[in-house]
C-alpha cells in the first residue's frame, strides 16, 4: 500500500522554510497544497522527490523510509512548473524517458506512451519537438511523462499555472477523471484557491513553517482556523477590519477603530465572543456576504445596512466587484454585472452578520470556532 507519511520534517537555509511538518496522504488520495509564493510548497515536493535533503524528520512511502535515498531509487514522479522537457527529443521520447531509463521492452514503451498520449489528447503530436507545440501541449507532455512512470506517489508542482483559462479548465477536468492519479498518493501544489477547492480530497493551506490548516474544501473555506487561511481562500479577498467589541443598548457591536463603522454581532457569535473576553478583534466578512441593496428591495433582519460611496466598480462577466467607502471604512462587495455603478455614486450595502468571522488580532486565531 503506497501511503505517504511525513514525520517531523524540517528544512531551512538561513531561515526556516518547513518546521516540524507532519502529514499523511493515503493511497488514492488527491491532496492539494495551496498558499502564497515563497512559502515552501515546492520545497516540500523536492524533499519528497529527493532533490533536497531534509535537516530533520522522515519521509516514508509504502512503509519504507526514503528520506536518504537518491531520487532514482524513489518510486515518485514529479511534474515541474517549468515543464522541464528535453528540447531535442520528440513528444513521444519525452514521455517515454522514464520507461527508457528502466529499460522496459520496446513494445511496452510504445503501448504505455500512446495510451497516455491518447488520454491527454496529444497523440497526434507525438512526433513533434517541444518547440513545435503550444504551452498547453507542453504541459500535457510533462504530465504524460509523470503519468507513464506508474509510481507510488505523484508530485504535481503548479502544473497548469502558466496556461490560459480555457486550457486550465480542460486540464482541471482531466485531473478529476485520470484514473492513474486515484491509484496512488498524489500531492498537487498550487497558489490558486479555486484549483484547490475544485480538486482536493483534502487541502493543506501552507503558511510560514508549515500547514496552517488541513481539511476538506468546505471546512477550510467556511471554517478557517486563522486569519491567514481566511485571507488565502477566496477571491476577492476577505474584508478585514480592526475593531473593538462594545455593548450598546444590550447589543454587542464590532466598532471599526479607524472609522465610524459599527457592525452588530449576530446572536450565534455573541456568547463565544463574550467568553473570549472583550477588547480588540479582527473582523472578517467575505465579499459574497456583502451585497448592494436595490431600491425597493427588502432587507433581512440579520443584515446590517450602511450608506456607502462607490470607489471602484469592476464587471467580470458573470459577477462584478464593487469597492466602496462605508462610514470611512473600505468594503469590497460582489454585485450583479447587470447593475452598473459610477465612481462617487451612493449605494446601500447590506452586511450579512451571520457570516462574519472574528479573529484574535495578535495570533490570528478564529475566536468563534
Task: Outline the secondary-structure elements.
Layout: E1 4-12, E2 16-25, E3 30-34, H1 41-49, E4 56-61, E5 64-65, E6 76-79, H2 91-101, H3 106-119, H4 135-147, E7 153-157, H5 165-177, E8 185-190, H6 193-199, E9 202-207, E10 210-215, H7 217-222, H8 227-232, E11 239-248, E12 251-256, E13 262-264, H9 267-276, E14 280-285, E15 290-293, E16 303-315, E17 320-326, E18 329-335, E19 346-352, E20 357-359
Parallel strand pairs: 3-8, 3-9, 6-7, 7-8
Antiparallel strand pairs: 1-2, 1-4, 4-5, 9-10, 11-12, 11-14, 12-13, 14-20, 15-19, 16-17, 16-19, 17-18
Helix pairs in contact: 2-3, 2-4
What does this entry look like structurally?
With about 375 residues, the chain is an alpha+beta fold. It is built from 9 helices and 20 strands. The strands form 4 sheets. The chain has a 6-stranded mixed beta sheet with strand order 6-7-8-3-9-10, with helices on both faces. Strand 16 (about 305-315) and strand 17 (about 320-325) form a beta hairpin. Helix 2 (about 90-100) packs across helix 3 and helix 2 runs parallel beside helix 4 (about 135-145).
> N-to-C terminal Cα separation, in Å?
36 Å
Q: Work out the helicity level.
A: 10-25%
Low-confidence stretches at least 5 residues in length (pLDDT < 50)? Answer: none
Determine the strand fraction and express it as a percent band: 25-35%
Number of helical runs? 9
Strand order of the largest sheet: 6-7-8-3-9-10
Structural class: alpha+beta
Let me know the largest β-sheet: 6 strands, mixed
Number of strands: 20
One letter per element, helices H and strands E, the order comes to EEEHEEEHHHEHEHEEHHEEEHEEEEEEE
The averaged pLDDT comes out at 90
What overall form do the CA principal axes indicate?
Answer: elongated
Radius of gyration: 25 Å
